[in-house]
Design brief:
single chain, 144 residues, mainly alpha, Four Helix Bundle (Hemerythrin (Met), subunit A)
Length: 144
């Protein structure tokens, strides 16, 4: 790979990190809305809010996996410190991805069963997992 390709990859990585941080901000805002939503607003309101939250969770996980993780692994020689941090923190990031998928699956089941309002109890578990993930991701990004 020539120097221009390496520079393009680094620029793409910087852009992906900026996008990740913007998506993280959106995700946190919707998470907060879901966590503070009043049940009196009803099932439909909660369904819309949790649908948006699940979409953001999946988009966020995909962005990390395909635009940051995979690029770091591909260019490991150039980003050695970040790859070492990634190896160290990947279990936490992967667990959070699994927790997000589980939350998404539970939400789908809750919609089918008409029990969306019961999903609020799962938010604290998801929130802890996301906080751990964000901290782990930040440790990787700081090494770039």
């Amino acid at each position: 790979m020539d120097e221009r390709d390496k520079e393009g990859a680094s620029e793409g990585l910087r852009h992906a990190i900026e996008e990740l941080l913007a998506e993280r901000k959106q995700l946190l805002a919707v998470y907060y809305q879901a966590a503070t939503a009043n049940q009196e607003n009803g099932e439909e309101s909660h369904t819309q809010l949790f649908t948006r939250l699940c979409q953001l969770l999946m988009d966020y996980a995909a962005l990390w996996q395909f635009e940051i993780h995979d690029v770091l692994v591909h260019f490991a020689a150039r980003h050695g410190a970040a790859v070492k941090a990634l190896e160290l923190h990947q279990p936490v990031i992967q667990q959070a991805a699994n927790d997000a998928l589980d939350f998404n699956d539970m939400f789908d089941a809750a919609v089918r069963e008409g029990k969306v309002l019961q999903m609020e109890s799962r938010l604290s578990v998801l929130g802890e997992s996301l906080a751990n993930r964000f901290e782990a991701e930040d440790q990787v990004v700081l090494k770039l």
